[in-house]
Amino acid sequence: MSIVTLTTDFGLKDYHLPVIKAKLLSLSKDVNIVDISHIISPYNILEAAFTLKAAYPHFPNNTIHIIGVDSIYSPENKHLLVKFNNQIFIGPDNGIFSLINDGGVFEYIKEINHPLSEKSTFPVLDVFTDIAGEVLNRYKISAVDRENDQLKKWIKNKPNITDENELIGHVLYIDNFGNLVTDIHKDLFNKFIDGRKFEIALSHIKINQVFDTYHAYTDMSNKVKYRFVSGEALAIFNSLNFLEIALYRSNPNHGGSAASLLGMRVDDSIIIRISH
């Protein structure tokens, strides 16, 4: 059975998702449709890229991933069919592919040649599903080859070691709990710290310890050291091994979250300093 995933900013209220799925099912009786996310913030390419980049490596080879974020066609935002890491992607040329496959090699990049691309106000339904159907049914694909250097690049902030005592990272993503996922990977963090004492500075707080799990944070073997007060800021390496700032057992709808209470947004800086 073939797999098609959907990543969009359409939300869950309207009719968009059912009709997309209905068309995919009409194009192939042997397709399994998987929702990655439909609550991406409107037009938020960085958020969509982070979500899809975290998810797609877990799918079988030749899974088709449809991206419906900022997908309306324009001469600067054409529609593409690309393949890399044995996965197939259909979406807009708005920089998202350079974020998902950061520095990687593309097996192919094809510009979609569809009669409705320039006219459609709903290209995920009118264009992307048709192309997915062509791939699923092994039809001749309505697309033309493009060179790698023609792909739109998204220039994003990257972690920067300013000197031997300071590492500047950035908020990469804010999750459903309002936790701040940074672009500082555990490997980079450990290499920079190299066993030295440190402090993590963001907004008005400073943190001097990073936990590998929430269980480690709530360990009561040392009742003085571990208070696990609800709403207390902590640093942790998440399941992707990126440094994350959270408020313990916070609820964004009741009492706030790390993002709201610390006043942090995507691309804001987080500084790690060696303390003496």
Q: Can you put this structure into words, describing what you see?
A:
By secondary structure, the protein is α+β, with helices and mostly antiparallel strands. The chain folds into 2 domains: 2-150, 3-Layer(aba) Sandwich (Rossmann fold), CATH 3.40.50.10790; 160-274, Elongation Factor Tu (Ef-tu), domain 3, CATH 2.40.30. The chain has helices at residues 16-27, 45-55, 96-100, 123-136, 186-193, 214-217, 258-262; strands at 2-8, 31-37, 64-68, 79-84, 87-92, 108-112, 143-145, 160-163, 166-174, 180-185, 198-202, 205-207, 210-211, 233-237, 242-247, 269-274. Strands 8, 9, 10, 11, 12, 13, 14, 15 and 16 form a 9-stranded mixed sheet that branches. It has a 7-stranded mixed sheet with strand order 2-1-3-5-4-6-7. A hairpin with a 2-residue loop joins strand 11 (198-202) and strand 12. Helix 1 (16-27) runs parallel beside helix 4. The longest helix has 14 residues, at 123-136. The radius of gyration is 21 Å and the shape is elongated. Mean pLDDT is 90; it is low at 224-228.
